[in-house]
Amino acid sequence: MVDKPHLDEEALAELQDVMEDEFETLINTYLSDSRDRIESLKKAISDGDAEALAHTAHSFKGSCINIGAPRLGALCREVEKAGQDGRLSDVQPVLDTIDAEFQRVTDALHTLMAGGAE
Amino acid sequence: MDESAPLKILIADDSDSDRLILKTLLKRLGHMVVDAANGHEAVALFQSETPDIVLLDALMPSMDGMEAARHIKKLAGERLVPLIFITSLTEPEDLAGCLEAGGDGFLSKPYNRVMIKAKVNAFNRMRLMHQALSDQRDLMHERNRQLLKEQHIARGVFDNVAHTGCLNAPNIRFHASPLSVFSGDVLFASPRPAGGMLVFAGDFTGHGLPAAIGAMPVAESFYGMAGKGFNGADILREINQKLVRILPKDMFCCGAMVEVDFALNQLNIWNGGLPDMWLMRSPTERYSLPSRHLPLGILGPDQFKADMETVRSRPGDRLLLMTDGVLECSDSEGQLFGEQGVRRAIENAGLSRHPFDALMSEIQRFTGQHKFGDDLTLCCLEMVDEAGQAALPDAVELSTLAGPTQWRCDYELQGSTLGEFNPLPLLLHICMEVPGLRRRSGEVYTLLSELYNNALEHGVLQLPSEWKYTPEGFDRYYSERAKRLSRVDGHYIRFSFHHDLTALGGRLRVVCEDSGEGFDFQNHPVLQATEMAQSGPRYGGRGLALIKRLAKTVQFDKKGSRVDVVYEWFF
């Protein structure tokens, strides 16, 4: 199901174009924001709060798509759906995948920024 | 307003990275951006920054976009501030919820530069159009308010000039719309200095301000001249001349003038373009008095005919006059009330009903309305005993100046002027310069007019007053009067005034002399009788009797063609 690329090169190129000098700030903002959101997702599961889970996943999904991380966005969508359906038990494996995917995205974005800075 | 002018845009999104992207995108488009991370902040910023457009994320912690939207729309009031939801929601119910909360449109994630620019521009156009409409509406409200205020003021000025005069006299019943100033109908009534009254009804072509402006000089001339003793014909000539000068070509005034003489029981009427007047004597006896002239304001002074028709009346007779509005009343099917409606109403009035009430209720029945059009004027005046009539009020303000006290004045009218000019207002005006006499304008006017009419009709024109005793003679009297007035070459009427002060007031001596053959004053019943027990309509007799009653002394000489009258007034 999750067959989207880790990074959307085209979207990122456009963002770079738009943001100019602020591109790095944007990426760093996104990364720290995302770490908070992953923590929120975990908390919602331990609290058993399906609504908060769906909510946070929905917002997280939007940011991911905007920044050009479609695979992470698709994973968020799965969590959102599970939250909406109240299937909290199904979420843990997806969350683990999100952790891993986020690490990949972080690395890729760092590489991108390092490349852009050269 | 400039469509490409930079806008102040409020954005609210709890995702810092998304907000940063959107903010940057909008700034690149040249706009000013204020941003909020949740609904609360958004509402607060909306109040403090008054942005032009709002972009709201639908789902946010601490007051979500929907609730913020409701607050913002409420705060915006009449101002249209386009509110666009930024959302990745796709469910129709969710999207509908956004619109119900006050949203004007959507912008979906991920952001697209082209779409954002197009949306902001589209909503800005809507905003500007709304603004333009609101501004125009406000301008129209303001204009309308201003117009009403001006009309109100104009109404006040108009009421001061065109007051209702003596329309509230007990022998007059009338209906005139309170809004008639701007409908073009006028109705005036004024007592005459020597008793009797003048009534004028008018109907201007057109409505609104032009009609009201036209009515002003008519009112001014009518009241000004009536109070100074001018007769109906003089006033009609003056009004006509004024209207010809001031009104545009396609505007004129249909009008009727009625000179009411209660003492002589006589009506002088002039109808130029108004519906037939009706003289009602009894439920079965009535006469219509149709228009015989063109309306006022059409003919030049040389072509205008102000001749009034003299109609004998009896106490209790009622004269009904009305404007076109009465005939133009329509029923629910658009049928007009018309002349037959008026005729039907007064024919059915019978004995018990006042014709005014009969006509009014017939109009109400016909139109099915209790309130009818503004331009409907109806007036009914009844011939009554003069004693029941209030004369011109003596409350004319006294000048603080003493005025002339010792003076002489000779005034002589000659030849054809006798047939063309009424000298009474001028003579009265001279006497009214004396404050003591001004308080007695009615008596002075009566004195002067009786002297003048006797000198003219019985002295110069040699008309026998006996003719007036019978209806046939009455008509003959007036046709003969007109005929003889055209042959007055070589004749004259001379007035000599002499005023002086006395210990208790003043004394006005008036000598009136005419070129006629005089009359046998030695054997005149009035001058011989010690009592004034006059009965019957003896006109010449009445005149002399009045003079004797008002004056201190009356002396005739030169075979009765010279009268010497002394009138006294007291402080």
TrEMBL record, chain A:
Alphabetical keyword list: Phosphoprotein, Two-component regulatory system
Transmembrane portions of the chain: none
Pfam hit, one: Hpt
UniProt domain HPt: residue ranges: 19-112
Top-rank taxon: Bacteria
SUPFAM superfamilies, sorted: Histidine-containing phosphotransfer domain, HPT domain
Post-translational modification Phosphohistidine, affected residues: 58
Keyword Phosphoprotein among UniProt keywords: yes
Keyword Ribosomal protein: no
Listed InterPro entries: AHP1-5/YPD1 (IPR045871), HPT_dom_sf (IPR036641), Sig_transdc_His_kin_Hpt_dom (IPR008207)
Protein name per Swiss-Prot or TrEMBL: Hpt domain-containing protein
Automatic annotation (TrEMBL), chain B:
Keyword Phosphoprotein: yes
Residues annotated as domain Response regulatory: 8-124
UniProt name for this protein: Fused response regulator/phosphatase
Modified residues (4-aspartylphosphate): 57
Xref: SMART domains: PP2C_SIG (SM00331), REC (SM00448)
Lineage top rank: taxon: Bacteria
TM ranges: none
Alphabetically ordered keywords of this record: Hydrolase, Phosphoprotein
Pfam families the record matches: HATPase_c_2, Response_reg, SpoIIE
